[in-house]
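Methods: example folding runs. The two proteins below were folded one after another, and each record is reproduced exactly as written to the output file, sequence line first and structure-token line second.
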Amino acid sequence: MAGGFDDENGKFRVLVNEEEQYSLWLDGMEVPRGWTDTGVAGDKKTCLDYVGKVWTDMRPKSLRIWMEEHAKKTAAEAQSNEAATAGSSPGA
């Protein structure tokens, strides 16, 4: 017997947390702390289709930000090293 989260025809809501991770939640249940209702509701397929469209990067938001900052820092350090190498001539 299907029921709860296993019910393909049940009514669900799509939730999102501060890390921009998504979850399906049974409609009518209290939204857990740390999660926000996106306003998207419907059967399981409708909700999963929405999540599939909007959640294209599974990495948590904090990791994405860290990786972007790390890449910028690494690129800046590489440019600085190239400039220092280009500025020093063998005969100087």
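Second run, written to the same file directly after the first:
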Amino acid sequence: MAEGDWHVVGIEIHSDRLRLRLFTADDAEDLFFAITPAITRFMQWEPPRSLAAFAKVWRSWLTPIQDGSDLHFVVRALADDRCLGLVGLHAAKTVCPELGIWIREDAQGNGIGQEAIAAVAEWASEALEPDCFEHPVAERNVASRRIAERLGGVIVGGRSNPKYNAVVYRIPNLRR
């Protein structure tokens, strides 16, 4: 992709059960109520204490979304438009963007996370043509580790933060 060809307007990704669109302020309340302590157990952040506190977070996403450098895709069910979670494509303009995901508690365990992250990785593989993706996952987060492994990810390193130790998977471009 030539420099300057990147446009975020109108990006919508579909899979069998899901629709993923870039975050807007209209999504904030749905996301806020889906974030629980169990969700953030394997995240570097804690649940926001209020909608106002969450607003400080999501407002910081808007400029990077618009310039295409850091994308937050809201995951919604095709059947009823229910908010199911969020997929991040961080450092999107680099040769190896970072993938991240969280899925609301009551939607876990039925392949939604796998389907959502695969949809974003497939879209990005074609639209952005990265060499690969990185996907850091808490060592004890077995479900997210399986997602990375099913996408062909291999462990290439580790990271630590105050809450947990993580392994970093490298996932290949899914179009190559």
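Comment on the second run: The longest strand covers residues 70-77.
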